Amino acid sequence: IHRAAATLAGAWVARELTRFEAPRLRAADVPRPSEVVEEVTARGKHLLMRFSSGLILHMHMRMSGSWHLYRPGERWRKPRGAMVVTVETTDVHAVCFSAPVVEMLRERALAHHRVLASLGPDLCVPDVDIDAVMSRLDALEGPTEIGVALLDQSVAAGIGNVYRSEVAWACRLDPFRPVGTVSSIDRRFLYETASRLLRANLDTPRRTTVPGGLAVYDRAGRACPRCGGVVATRRLGEQARSVWWCSGCQR
User: Which pTM was predicted?
Assistant: First the structure.
């Protein structure tokens, strides 16, 4: 999302719209031609696009959404029926496909937004407030597993399923271990490591946490690059998403 925001900002910021289309939104609530895109930013896994009228487009890609940039007249690489937002300037057309969350907000609504207002500090920014993350982590119930806490965007924003496995591996912590049993030093190290790994991958589409790629994510049955133990996988949390860890050095 941070890479998408940077790409879109480079294509749009300070440029006038020639067309905006979003089939899910009311026509009265969308930017008009000649408005200017003032800013495109990422907040955790959420993308925010601010227009000169004060409108803010809020989107969440989840697993299905994607942005494409086209030249005028260029053929789209996905079907029109999957389009959820089109933003056009004179020489760049940006099209978002299949994003499940698309809504238009006003600035004053951000502070009261059910999801955005609850987000923890963004781990993708260099000056993230780790003390604030620790305070939010302390508020979780002690039996909450580390792997569940890492995906909790109200504790810290930015960690997805790939990074929760990789971060827990980097810190030698079993993802099923209760947070209440982890020392304050290890808690801080966990989120400092998450921030470091996320920021190291902001400028590249290929996620790398160890030389050559990933340590444990989607590597069930293979050897751990650190100790040679077998990488295991199991579902974790209410969403029952798979988590990977080394059965040898994450005990």
Answer: 0.87
SS3 content of the chain, % helix, strand, coil (to 5): 25, 25, 45
The residue behind tokens 């086209």 is 70
* Secondary structure, 3-state, the chain: CHHHHHHHHHHHCCCECCEEECCCCCHHHCCCCCCEEEEEEEECCEEEEEECCCEEEEEECCCCCEEEEECCCCCCCCCHHHEEEEEECCCCEEEEECCCEEEEEEHHHHCCCCCHHHCCCECCCCCCCHHHHHHHHHCCCCCCEHHHHHHCCCCCECCCHHHHHHHHHHCCCCCCCEHHHCCHHHHHHHHHHHHHHHHHCCCCCCCCCECCECCCCCCCCCECCCCCCEEEEEEECCCCEEEEEECCCCC
* pLDDT tens figures, 44-83: 889 999 999 999 999 999 889 999 999 999 999 999 999 9
- Cα atoms in the 13 Å half-sphere on the side-chain side of 214: 22
pLDDT tens per residue across span 22-42? 999 987 789 999 999 999 999
Provide the token pair at 164. 């929760």
The answer to whether 73 touches 83, Cβ cutoff 8 Å, is no
* Tokens encoding 108: 């004053």
